[in-house]
Design a protein that fits this description.
Layout: E1 4-8, H1 15-23, E2 41-47, E3 50-56, H2 68-82, E4 85-91, H3 98-109, E5 114-119, H4 127-132, E6 142-143, H5 152-170, H6 174-186, E7 197-203, H7 209-217, E8 235-241, E9 244-250, H8 263-278, E10 281-287, H9 294-305, E11 309-315, H10 323-337, E12 346-348, H11 357-371, H12 377-390, E13 403-410, E14 415-420, H13 428-441, E15 450-455
Parallel strand pairs: 1-3, 1-4, 4-5, 5-6, 7-9, 7-10, 10-11, 11-12, 14-15
Antiparallel strand pairs: 2-3, 8-9, 13-14
Length: about 475
């Protein structure tokens, strides 16, 4: 288990900016307005030769009721409890506020080692705030600039002994570590396990995406509540289902672009789109009481166009009165809207009650296996001869297009190359016919299939 560092502090002190610098990517959403971060985000950080896990947390608010801010605070407190160390960040340019002092008092009582840092210390404007931070009682603060990378050496000096101490506890005897390494070398001939399945949960706001992720994980990892649009960042969590590694990604709700007038929501939508781009399987979660709406179809079309395996999940199934009619309506609309991707799996579930989750995950892994499917060249060419004989290609200008041979170029999604004469004259309708027959004959329901046409060169053309 790697060393973990939680970055905490009141809103808008630069926690997400520091998180992005440590992980080396712009993973966390950053904006000038406070309160952008809500859920706890994790990432693999690197600081010189140190490697550790880092938590970006929501801004601390002095509330303890059942409001959204209070739920965000409880998530941050859970991160502090689970972390091996905490970095308490204050804004040097704004100076130490009463809220900083209040939470510094709580941090002093925590069992987790705490480092105090004054952020935004570039230039002289941050000097007064840096000196004020001495009065918080958390030791000597370090001067940081997350934006410009200042103070990383002092953060390194704080983390190194803690990380080395934890590694020493894990491997008290170097001989044990070497023996473990040697034992790993003996298994070199075995097939290496595949990486985690990248599974993104997407959908419109307030359909229960975070509730579903929490149910799958078995803990309140994501913020949930009656408010629409709680999730802003796409949060990934490593998880295991029946000995299969999964990287589960919760995303922000996607609305129609015309309805988005908030900058942070635009950033969240772009982050969700990026999660789809990097996913392997996408679960599109619907509100079963509303059915398959136009925005759901837009999201599904985006997933299919990106070549990702798609599973439709009907949430809130416990609230549906006529379930047979509701399921039939969704399947019929999918059939009409996606005739080129027939057989998309549809799973009914209740995230709130935890019903249908195993059925969902079985559908996810089945879609993943189909998405990875590879077909041998010989049966592909026998199939091509059969389907082209049953339904010959058109003959524009009186010259019939000849489909000569076919290979699978790649998987993920299944992609095929057909060498033929005059590929530019083959109509899209005939390509759709080939796709649907390929999906039917080789048992590949629901997965996107791509067919590229290539013109075979005539070896005598230049002679």
């Amino acid at each position: 288990m790697s060393f973990t560092l939680a970055i905490v502090g009141r809103p808008n002190v630069g926690k997400s900016t520091l998180f992005n610098r440590l992980v080396g990517k712009r993973l966390a959403l950053v904006d000038d307005q406070p309160g952008v971060t809500r859920d706890r985000r994790e990432g693999d950080a690197r600081l010189f030769d140190l490697h550790f896990r880092v938590f970006d947390t929501a801004g601390l608010e002095d509330v303890t009721d059942d409001s959204l801010e209070a739920r965000m605070r409880r998530q941050t407190e859970a991160a502090i409890e689970q972390a091996d160390a905490a970095l308490f960040l204050v804004d040097a340019r704004a100076g130490v506020t009463p809220l900083d002092a209040h939470f510094a008092d709580l941090m002093r009582r925590a069992r987790t080692p705490v480092l105090l840092a004054a952020n935004k210390c570039e230039g002289k404007a941050g000097e007064p705030g840096l000196y004020e931070a001495f009065g918080l009682g958390l030791g000597e603060p370090i001067a940081l600039s997350a934006e410009h990378g200042l103070g990383m050496d002092e953060l390194y000096d704080f983390l190194r002994p803690l990380i080395e101490a934890k590694e020493g506890a894990l491997y008290p005897d170097e001989d044990d570590a070497e023996a473990e390494a040697d034992s790993g070398e003996e298994d070199e001939g075995e097939e290496a396990p595949r990486g985690p399945v990248q599974l993104a949960v997407v959908g419109r706001p307030n359909v229960g995406k975070s509730t579903l992720v929490n149910r799958l994980l078995g803990e309140d990892r994501m913020l949930t509540g009656p408010e629409a649009g709680i999730t802003r960042d796409s949060i990934s969590v490593d998880w295991t289902w029946q000995d299969r590694a999964v990287r589960l990604i919760d995303t922000a709700g996607l609305r129609r672009r015309a309805r988005i007038d908030d900058k942070v929501e635009r950033l969240s939508a772009a982050d969700s789109k990026r999660a789809i781009d990097y996913a392997q399987v996408v679960v599109l979660l619907l509100d079963a009481t509303l059915g398959l709406e136009k925005q759901d179809l837009t999201i599904a079309r985006t997933v299919v166009e990106e070549g990702r395996a798609l599973v439709i999940a009907l949430n809130k199934w416990d609230a549906v009165e006529d379930r047979a009619v509701a399921l039939r309506q969704v399947e019929n609309r999918l059939e009409r809207s996606f005739p080129q991707t027939r057989g998309i799996p549809v799973v009914a579930l209740s995230a709130l009650e935890g019903r249908g989750l195993d059925k969902l995950m079985r559908a996810v892994f089945q879609a993943y296996e189909i998405w990875n499917k590879r077909l041998a060249t010989a049966p592909l060419n026998r199939w091509l001869q059969a389907v082209s004989a049953q339904h010959p290609p058109p003959a524009p200008g009186g010259r019939r297009i000849r489909l000569k041979y076919m290979t699978q170029a790649r998987s993920r999604p299944p992609t095929f190359a057909i060498h033929c004469s005059n590929p530019d004259d083959l109509p899209p309708s005939y390509l759709r016919y080939l796709e649907n027959q390929l999906r039917l004959d080789f048992d590949m329901p629901g997965t996107p299939i791509r067919i590229h046409l290539k013109k075979q060169k005539n070896p005598y053309a230049d002679g």
